Inverse folding.
């Protein structure tokens, strides 16, 4: 056992250095440098303006994240040098005039790259036939995030976590966006345990206690890709194990590509949602992914700030529910809760990988016995060669 200890320490050292990551320094500001009273107090409907600015400072550059409910729920991502400074003209930004809003948020230098994603709509569709296909429903209702009333952003700075919660006046329940921005490679603690890079963020979208219009109601959401690129690659990959998300062996990526077919930024999700909290395998089922639509939607949110008014963006829909009748398929009224998580980030989407502990267990369980067999064969071969040599001498 004593002889094995140095080898064990060697393996641990290898794994330690292999998984060291360059963390970023995280800072969070709510409505930065806004002296307008609208930035501090709710309006007559009890709704707050929330523009959450997260700065992820690295050794050589800075990643800037913005989460906004101005006009529509939007996430923006930027990468700049360390010297870039943010400037916001709040009067123009809050004008609700797309011409004035243009360039109301800027940096003192051109970002290395940027992109964004907008969630303009939540759909409730009546699935009488149990197809779980939003396109086949003849009865669909739309909730626009620009018409929501929003609570004040709440954050937990020690956990790099925050919540943006919205409600509809006169209706019980809420829509929540739970946001993680750790600034380092991290796997989110709760299901579906998305893997984040230092340049990424995750958003868990919850529909909580909203009264459905029918016992056959299911929900879905619309996502707009805020980009000037016309090349968007949407694909799924099979994962090698379900260590982090039991029963799920597939990962979806929507990547915005540059002229060289390299990913500029990405949207990533697992095709699973949860219909109860706390989450578990038993209270989960699949999502439905729909084909993307090219140049079909305008931005109602921060897309108006960074792109020309006439730009139309590509988008896609995702719905929550399993095909089947009311007994076998999932319907929202069964629990009055739906939770779906996704991540967005700069660069290429991360690939699923096994944890260091699992990798070490596999190595110890399979690698060491194989190594012992190889050593045994070598010893036998050496003995045989020596025996033959001695025989020839005689």
């Amino acid at each position: 056992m004593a002889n094995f200890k140095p080898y064990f320490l060697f393996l641990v050292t290898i794994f330690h250095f292999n998984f060291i990551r360059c963390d970023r320094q995280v800072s969070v500001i709510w409505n930065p440098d806004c002296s307008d009273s609208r930035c501090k107090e709710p309006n007559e409907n009890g709704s707050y303006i929330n523009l959450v600015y997260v700065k992820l400072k690295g050794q050589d550059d800075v990643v800037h994240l913005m989460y906004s409910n101005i006009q529509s729920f939007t996430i923006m991502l930027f990468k700049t040098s360390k010297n870039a400074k943010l400037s916001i003209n709040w009067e123009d930004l809050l004008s609700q005039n797309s011409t004035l809003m243009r360039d109301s948020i800027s940096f003192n230098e051109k970002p290395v790259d940027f992109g964004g994603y907008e969630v303009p709509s939540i759909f409730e569709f009546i699935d009488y036939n149990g197809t779980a296909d939003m396109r086949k429903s003849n009865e669909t209702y739309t909730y626009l995030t620009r018409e929501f009333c929003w609570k004040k952003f709440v954050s937990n700075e020690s956990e790099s976590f925050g919540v943006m919660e919205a409600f509809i006046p006169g209706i019980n329940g809420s829509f929540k966006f739970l946001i993680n921005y750790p600034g380092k490679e991290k796997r989110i603690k709760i299901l579906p345990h998305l893997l984040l890079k230092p340049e990424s963020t995750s958003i868990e979208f919850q529909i909580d206690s909203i009264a459905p219009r029918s016992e056959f109601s299911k929900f879905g959401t619309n996502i707009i890709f805020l980009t000037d690129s016309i090349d968007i690659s949407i694909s799924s990959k099979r994962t090698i194990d379900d260590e982090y998300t039991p029963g799920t062996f597939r990962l979806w990526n929507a990547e915005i590509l540059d002229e060289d077919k390299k990913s500029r930024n990405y949207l990533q999700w697992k095709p699973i949602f949860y219909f109860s909290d706390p989450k578990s395998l038993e209270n989960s089922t699949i999502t439905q992914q729909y084909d993307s639509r090219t140049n079909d939607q305008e931005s109602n949110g921060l897309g108006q700030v960074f792109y020309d008014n006439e730009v139309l963006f590509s988008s896609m829909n995702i719905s929550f529910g399993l095909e089947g009748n009311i007994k076998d398929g999932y319907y929202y009224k069964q629990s009055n809760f739906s939770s779906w998580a996704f991540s967005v980030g700069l660069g290429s989407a991360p690939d699923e990988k096994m944890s260091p502990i699992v990798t070490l267990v596999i190595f110890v369980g399979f690698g060491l016995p194989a190594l012992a067999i190889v050593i045994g064969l070598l010893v036998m071969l050496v003995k045989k060669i020596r025996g033959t040599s001695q025989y020839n001498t005689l």
